[in-house]
Specification:
Blueprint lengths: L6 E3 L5 E3 L2 E3 L2 E2 L6 E3 L4 E3 L2 E3 L2 E2 L6 E3 L5 E3 L2
Parallel strand pairs: 1-5, 2-6, 3-7, 4-8, 5-9, 6-10
Length: 70
């Protein structure tokens, strides 16, 4: 559906640690990451990601997500 150029999370509660997201694109939302569930992101870099509608790097549809040192 054009979401989540790098990661599309529809189920679960992933932890993403020490990753580099570079040059990801999405036709809709979440160039690097699109999540419908709580997600934990720590120590990640986001470079040159894009989306046509929302969230060039991240679109988070759920409260309770955390982003730390990214």
């Amino acid at each position: 559906d054009g979401t989540g150029g790098g990661i599309l999370c529809e189920f679960g509660a992933p932890r993403v640690l020490d990753c580099v997201f570079e040059g990801n694109t999405a036709e809709n939302s979440g160039g690097a990451i699109y999540s419908k569930k709580p997600i934990s992101i720590r120590g990640c870099s986001f470079l040159y990601n894009s989306a046509t509608n929302t969230g060039g790097a991240i679109t988070d549809r759920e409260s309770g997500s955390t982003i730390d040192s990214s």
